[in-house]
Amino acid sequence: MMATPICAGKRRRSRGILGGPRGGGIAPSACWWLALVGLLTAGWLSCGEQNSTFAKRADQNYREARRRFQSNTNDAEAAWQFGRACFDRADFARNDEERESIANEGIAACRQLLERDPKSEPGHYYLAMNLGQLAQTKTLGALKLVQEMEREFKTSRDLDPKWDYAGPDRNLGLLYLEAPGWPASLGSKSNARRHLERCVELAPNYPENRLCLLEALLKWKDKKNALREINAIRDLLPRARKEFTGDAWEQSWADWDKRWETIQEKARELRK
Fold first, then answer.
1. What is the CATH number of the domain that holds 39?
2. Which of 5, 25, 183, 229 is the least buried, fewest Cβ under 10 Å from its Cβ?
């Protein structure tokens, strides 16, 4: 999922990243991030020309954010905005080497910020996001990165649970949803449900939150609650289109519309 646009208050949404299993080892424990991009990017990555536009926009934002940060590395806002831009740009990496390099830039900027300000909520948040990008490139060692992501998202939640439209709880929920369970990793259905429900409580009008919860409910075959959320999203989307507008939200809507289309197909099966 891409990071929520800066023009929308503090920023836009966060998208997830990890690709599919890389075979063997601990890699599957990192694949929770696919929930953010498998769910969030599965639709728009296949959009051809539209995807090319998103990639160019992410690259431009990344280059501009890097210039701002390099011109004043002590600027806290420039640091976390660069971390956010690195996360978004890494989604369009051509290979693991490029993804790792960009993610490490974001990680370094966020760690530098946190050395000066340990209570920087966006510092912890975007550190976790870029660790997710880095974990996507790993086989061995991914579990350690996932555990660090968990700590950083928890810290960001403690500092500001409403950041990125309840992003810390949303990402924790996806982490617990997609990661394997104990002893392989930290996956947990109960923790996933708790955090995904919490992000909806904190930011009920943000489509990403309700879509993530609904996709989890469908995965768990929780028909009653899934049908409730389907009705809630159907009512929400027309209103959300008026609130989340402009170029900065184009990529999000490409993703949300694709996922909503898939969900409606599943809903027809649920009602049979």
1. 1.25.40.10
2. 183
